[in-house]
Design a protein that fits this description.
The complex is a heterotrimer of chains A (496), B (100) and C (691). Chain A has 496 residues and is mostly helical. Chain A has a domain at 289-496. Chain A has 20 helices and two strands. Chain A has helices at 11-29, 36-60, 83-106, 113-132, 136-154, 161-192, 197-203, 210-228, 236-243, 246-271, 275-280, 283-303, 308-328, 336-367, 379-382, 384-398, 405-419, 422-447, 462-477, 482-494, and strands at residues 72-74, 79-81. In chain A, strands 1-2 form a two-stranded antiparallel ribbon. Chain A is globular. Chain A starts with 10 loop residues before the first helix and ends with a helix. Chain B has helices at residues 4-24, 28-53, 57-87. In chain B, helix 2 runs antiparallel to helix 3. Chain C contains 27 helices and two strands. In chain C, strand 1 and strand 2 form a beta hairpin. Chains A and B meet through helix 5, helix 6 and helix 9 of A and helix 1, helix 2 and helix 3 of B. Chain A: One of its GO terms (biological process) is ATP synthesis coupled electron transport. Chain A: This is Proton-translocating NADH-quinone oxidoreductase, chain N.
């Protein structure tokens, strides 16, 4: 068997980057191309290749320590390829695949398609790279690589007021947050004299200047909270998700959130996990507060929405709160790998079920039948298959045992039990119960309510349907196949 | 040699001015400029600490940050442009069709 | 291969016939009847083979299918226990079920009833459930099949669901027996909880490690280690458990005060009544007591309760039977009364007498119901006895077989009922005299009630016979009755012969008087050393030992000497029975009998209304349970729902507030972010000691 060169371990990210460049090339040759078979095809192939490579590497154990106990690291330890990086590459690439397939129909009659696809893949490259980042500098660059195309993507419908307003808010909050994040990085650098995670961890002994380190850590929390749409940096999320084209909402709320979390996992579990840091600034406590507030704000605000897409946007904030348990329940003890792992599991399952739900919204937008709950009345009479898929997504999001969301939430709950942070578990239960209420409203509207007169659907777009149904299938299959996910996630978490 | 604390104070002042601008200015362009101030406050820190520790990673990172700031402004200006087209204004508080 | 390897098929065959009738009955020539007949015949053959094997001294007690395996504790399983009691009951159930299936050809098919596949499916499932119940090796499995039996009786009683009566009767049967089963279920759970710590197999009926045996060790030998008796003395707690299980028994076996469903259950088709009364539903209760007799024999209080309830029910039901006008109603009250005798026997230590009476009763009550069915066919579904009369000459086969059954029921020598009823009363009498203290007195009181009931039994039985068959035909229908075919006469003939002769299987008095070894049933159930199944500890020898040496101290006392007491007891019961028959004869064996019930005055009203049992139970439901339920509903609607609704409106209200945070103005967002950051910095700066 041929031993591949070490740099090929980065293949998933490199494949995404390559795809982005090819698409950019198409764009520069033919800026007004509306050949969406070609564009979606290239983007889809690239993303599938990246996802497949990630799975191959995970199965082959590329991200596991070699015999000398070393993980694959590149560019003077600035990038690392471990199971966690591959796990998130897979997550990002599979979400991207679904989004691209759905966009084939969604973007069919819209302008600037080549730019759309190249920006999407470029953002995905950044997110995937973020999973490999092993230093604050690379992390910031990757973060911006993910963010900047996202701003432009939200604004891609230039003449749509909602799209522009969403982009403006996303961009302004994002710019502020990245400023805060960068300032935090500069302070941590000031306290340790290093940007690489392991070096930062090594430099953090008892003698560090408390104020500088403390402010720096809290500002980094802010940068992470922005990317993951956690309170109080979540303000952009409801508007950005509502105003953006629905496939982009799906992409941002699933993949971008996951990228934010992998950054958080790396920074906090690798660089800042130490008694010296925790004595200065108890960031676990910060995350506990943020987790609970995020859960409550997201779910409570979602409960009274009239617009389904905005409801999903708030629910996405709520789910960020759930995943924050993966950080907030860290104790420094033996349960940490399980706690982090359970956060990763939820992100993966969420990647499919939430993407699916937003793509269903994309389908509804494609049909142009309105955005409120009432507009969904009786939709199942016209599109039973898609509505069944949406029901799977919603119930799985709520944590009912119809999809993988049941097990991932269950694992989060067990994580709180094992680490003794019962209040997080209680908040998880209360909010899941509340979420069932507003998810069920959609299901009720689709299946039980009488359709408005004249509700008729004429087109059944193949790309959107494929994406929605595949997402539903994966969500359901994650129920029996959850063992594989949980084992990979736990192994990955234990390697940090 | 000027002590590092002075640079820290300078950057903190610049950061605060940036935040102040973000909070009070409604013009999108000035908002952008304020964000630039925040980013540059961080750059001052990076360069100063780099000088203090005698390693170059901070300075190099500052260069990256400047590049990224430029890219950010480019995207930002694009968004401000479409904002103007859609809302006939670049007042950031005008665009409030989505809320609650 | 031994017979035991085929034992599961005994219950599975009728189950298959259930499936066949349910899904394929429409397309079969007799709508599923033939499948049922074949299945029950197969069960009968297998039961006979099993009985022969058991006669050879072999028994069987194995778990077959474990559906919940316990880690380091008991598991829940389906299994089969076959000892002589089981073998006997399997024979009875499959035999009666076979005859009922054959009879149904005449009663249902020939009469052109609709919905026959449903009927035969019900019969098949009913038979299968009862057979499964009979050879259940543990109390949980017994409970499961007990419930299935209840379900099937519901389905069959309500067979004619388009009429007004049957659905209501079915519901009543279901609810009243379910009321008893509720206690049974608690008892089952209680037994598992109590014995789980002391044995790996707390649910089993037989063998070392089964709950009756562990309980016996606890009480007789004081080995209470691992038992969980909830702080009670073991004997007190076992009494409670026994009484809980007895709740299910009293519901199913229609013992006072849960007997009210049974007369109403006459709304079901007559063959179903025969099956319910003779071999399945009602027999299940008494059989359960016999099955776990080792447990009941330990606690004098439960014995006393069983004996008293039995004696009282025997008398109480017999008096109500006296005034009934419908043929099947009389039989229904006689069933209640006869099961009272069995309970009386079990309570007073006459285990063999009870099983004996269960056997003979199965035969003669099946005979009487099938005979009644024949009369009903002949009378074009007229059931009032006052509309009949003079049928003797028109349907001789029915008459003579019915007469045999009636003589057996009345307890006239030498018909089957005499021998078994006499033994029941004799056992109660001698144990009443022999046992010291209150328990002996209770036995004597129960005996007195049982004895008195003999008179009424003779009276109502022959009132029924004379009114139905003798005298002049009182209506046009009775003058020209509808003929019946072989499929009705055949079962009647078989049962008629058996009703006359089955008593000879246990001629215990004859043995005592002459020394002839003719008490075959006694030997069958003894389980003495060397019988091959003493290890199961379910033989009478073991029970006798428990009764003697346990806390009950049931002993034999013969005030007139062995022979004298025996003869006195037999003469007394026979005399009363004959007196009852003669009284009926003098009143009703006239060409044109008239109602004499008015002479009873106010007692007639009381009897006609069944002692207002239904009325007070309805009052209990409407006057007590209903207001209680309404109060609970109020509590639920007001407090519980109020709290829930309150939480939801608070949530929604706070949700509508929380969303206002999202003002839509991006500058505000920047402000909120800054404030939050500053707050975090200040709080953590102060606690972290940065300044």
């Amino acid at each position: 068997m041929v031993q591949l060169p070490t740099w090929t371990a980065l293949s998933p990210t490199l494949l995404l980057g390559l795809t982005a460049i090819v698409l950019l090339l198409v764009d520069s040759i033919d800026p007004d191309s509306s050949n969406n078979e070609l564009l979606a095809g290239v983007a889809g192939l690239g993303s599938i290749a990246a996802a497949a490579t990630s799975v191959w590497f995970i199965v082959a154990g590329t991200g596991l320590p070699a015999e000398n106990g070393e993980l694959i690291s590149l560019f003077d330890d600035q990038l690392v390829v471990d199971q966690m990086a591959l796990f998130f590459s897979f997550l990002v690439a599979s979400v991207l695949t679904l989004v691209v397939v759905a966009s084939y129909d969604y973007m069919a009659d819209k302008a600037r398609q080549a730019k759309y696809y190249s920006l999407t893949v470029m953002a995905a490259t950044g997110m995937s790279l973020l999973g490999s980042a092993n230093g604050l500098a690379v992390a910031f660059v990757a973060l911006e690589l993910a963010s900047l195309p996202s701003y432009a993507l939200v604004a891609i419908l230039k003449t749509n007021k909602g799209s522009v307003e969403a982009a403006l808010k996303y961009f302004l909050v994002g710019a502020l947050s990245s400023g805060v994040f960068l300032y935090g990085i500069s302070l941590v650098y000031g306290a340790t004299g290093s940007l690489q995670f392991d070096a930062v961890a090594a430099a953090l002994t008892d003698g560090v200047p408390a104020g500088i380190l403390g402010i720096g850590v809290l500002m980094i929390v802010g940068g992470v909270a922005f990317k993951t749409a956690s309170v109080p940096f979540h303000f952009w999320a409801p508007e950005a998700y509502e105003g953006a084209p629905a496939p982009i909402s799906a992409f941002l709320s699933s993949a971008s959130k996951a990228a934010g979390f992998v950054l958080a996992f790396r920074v906090f579990a690798t660089a800042l996990m130490g008694d010296a840091v925790l004595a200065v600034v108890d960031w676990v406590l910060v995350f506990q507060v943020l987790a609970i507030v995020t859960m409550f704000v997201g779910n409570f605000a979602a409960a009274t929405q009239e617009n389904v897409k905005r409801m999903l946007a708030y629910s996405s904030v709520g789910h960020a709160g759930y995943v924050l348990i993966g950080l907030a329940a860290l104790t420094g003890g033996s349960s940490d790998a399980y706690v982090l792992g359970s956060g990763m599991m939820h992100l993966l399952v969420y990647g499919f079920m939430n993407t699916g739900a937003f793509l269903f919204i994309a389908l509804v937008e494609y049909w142009d039948i309105g955005r409120t709950f009432e507009d969904y009345n009786g939709l199942a009479t016209q599109a039973p298959l898609a509505c069944a898929a949406m029901t799977v997504f919603l119930f799985s999001l709520a944590g009912l045992p119809i999809g993988g969301g049941f097990f991932s939430k269950f694992n989060l709950l067990m994580a709180t039990v094992r680490s003794g942070t019962w209040f997080l578990g209680a908040a998880l239960i209360v909010n899941s119960a509340l979420s069932l209420y507003y998810y069920t409203r959609v299901v009720k509207a689709m299946w039980i309510e009488e359709p408005a007169s004249g509700l008729e659907i004429e087109r059944y777009p193949i790309g959107l349907y494929t994406a929605v149904l595949v997402a539903a299938l994966v969500t359901v299959l994650l129920l029996p196949g959850f063992d594989a996910v949980s084992q990979t996630a736990e192994t990955a978490a234990s390697l940090l | 040699m000027i002590p590092t604390q002075y640079y820290l104070l300078l950057s903190a002042a610049v950061f605060c001015i940036g935040i102040f601008g973000v909070l009070t200015r409604r013009n999108a362009l000035i908002f952008l400029m304020s964000v630039e101030l925040i980013l540059n406050a961080a750059n001052i820190n990076l360069v100063a600490f780099s000088f203090q520790y005698g390693n170059l990673s901070g300075q190099v990172f500052a260069l990256f940050a400047m590049g990224l700031a430029a890219a950010e402004v480019a995207v930002g200006l694009g968004i401000v442009l479409v904002l103007y087209r859609n809302f006939s204004d670049i007042d950031v508080t005008e665009a409030t069709t989505m809320r609650w | 291969m031994t017979a035991f390897d085929y034992a599961p098929a005994i219950a599975l065959l009728p189950f298959v016939s259930f499936l066949v009738a349910l899904f394929g009955g429409q397309y079969l020539p007799k709508k599923g009847a033939l499948a049922g007949i074949a299945a029950t015949a197969g069960s009968l053959v297998l039961s006979a083979w099993v009985a022969l094997t058991v006669a050879g001294g072999q028994t069987y007690n194995e778990a077959l299918y474990t559906f919940t395996a316990g880690l380091e504790t008991f598991d829940l399983h389906l299994g089969i226990l076959i000892d002589p009691l089981t073998a006997l009951m399997l024979l009875i159930v499959s035999f009666i079920a076979l005859l009922v299936h054959v009879f149904s050809l005449g009663y249902m098919n020939d009469e052109g009833e609709t919905g026959l596949p449903r009927y035969y499916a019900g019969l098949g499932l009913f038979t299968a459930s009862m057979l499964g119940f009979v050879y259940a090796d543990n109390i949980l499995m017994a409970f499961m099949f007990f419930e299935l039996v209840g379900l099937c009786s519901y389905l069959l009683i309500g067979f004619n669901f388009r009429e007004a009566g049957p659905p209501s009767a079915a519901k009543k049967a279901f609810l009243v027996t379910r009321f008893g089963d509720y206690f049974f279920l608690i008892g089952v759970v209680g037994i598992f909880v109590t014995f789980a710590g002391a044995t790996q197999t707390p649910g089993l009926f037989a063998g070392e490690g089964s709950f009756p045996v562990v309980a016996e060790h606890a009480i007789v030998d004081g080995a209470t280690e691992g038992l969980n008796t909830f702080g009670f003395e073991p004997q007190t707690w076992f009494t409670i458990l026994g009484l809980l299980v007895l709740g299910g028994v009293m519901g199913k076996s229609a013992q006072f005060p849960l007997h009210t469903w049974l007369p109403d259950a006459m709304e079901g088709p007559t063959p179903v009544s025969a099956l319910i009364h003779a071999a399945t539903m009602v027999a299940a209760g008494v059989y359960l007591v016999a099955r776990m007799y080792g447990f009941y024999a330990l606690t004098p209080t439960t014995l006393a309760v069983i004996a008293l309830v039995g004696g009282f029910t025997a008398l109480f039901a017999a008096t109500m039977g006296v005034v009934k006008q419908e043929l099947k109603q009389v039989l229904a009250y006689s069933t209640i009364s006869q099961y009272g005798y069995m309970m009386l026997a079990l309570g007073s230590g006459g285990y063999i007498a009870a099983v004996f009476h269960l056997t003979t009763h199965a035969v003669f009550k099946a005979l009487l119901f099938l005979g009644a069915g024949a009369v009903i066919i002949a009378m074009h579904h007229e059931e009032n006895m006052w509309e009949m009369g003079g049928l003797k000459d028109k349907m001789p086969v029915t008459y003579y077989t019915f007469l045999a059954g009636s003589l057996a029921l009345a307890g006239i020598v030498p018909f089957a009922g005499f021998w078994s009823k006499d033994e029941v009363l004799y056992e109660a009498l001698i144990h009443g005299f022999g046992t010291e203290g209150g328990l002996g007195t209770v036995f004597l009181v129960a005996y007195a009630m049982g004895l008195l009931a003999v008179f009424f039994t003779g009276f109502y039985t022959f009132r029924m016979v004379y009114l139905t068959f003798h005298g002049e035909a009182r209506t046009e229908t009775a003058k020209k009755p509808h003929g019946v075919r072989w499929n009705v006469k055949g079962p009647l003939a078989v049962l008629g012969i058996l009703a006359t002769t089955i008593g000879f299987v246990n001629l215990a008095p004859v043995k005592k008087l002459t020394g002839l070894e003719v008490d075959f049933l006694h030997k069958w159930l003894l389980g003495a050393e060397g019988s091959g199944w003493e290890a199961l500890l379910t033989g009478y020898e073991h029970y006798e030992h428990v009764l003697h040496d346990g806390p009950a101290h049931v002993l034999v006392g013969e005030p007139l000497g062995a022979t004298g007491t025996l003869i006195a007891s037999a003469l007394l019961s026979l005399g009363l029975a004959v007196a009852g028959v003669l009284a009926a004869r003098s009143l009703y064996k006239v060409p044109e009998p008239v109602e004499h019930t008015d002479k009873l005055g106010s007692i007639k009203t009381l009897l006609m209304h069944n002692y207002y049992q239904d009325e007070y139970q309805v009052w209990l439901a409407t006057g007590f349970t209903y207001p209680l339920s309404r109060a609970a509903d109020k509590f639920d609607q007001g407090v519980i729902d109020g709290v829930v609704n309150g939480i939801s409106s608070v949530s929604l209200f706070s949700g509508s507030r929380v969303r206002r945070l999202q003002t839509g103005v991006v500058t505000n967002y920047a402000l909120f972010i800054t404030i939050a950051l500053v707050v975090l910095l200040v709080v953590f700066g102060l606690t972290g000691g940065w300044f």
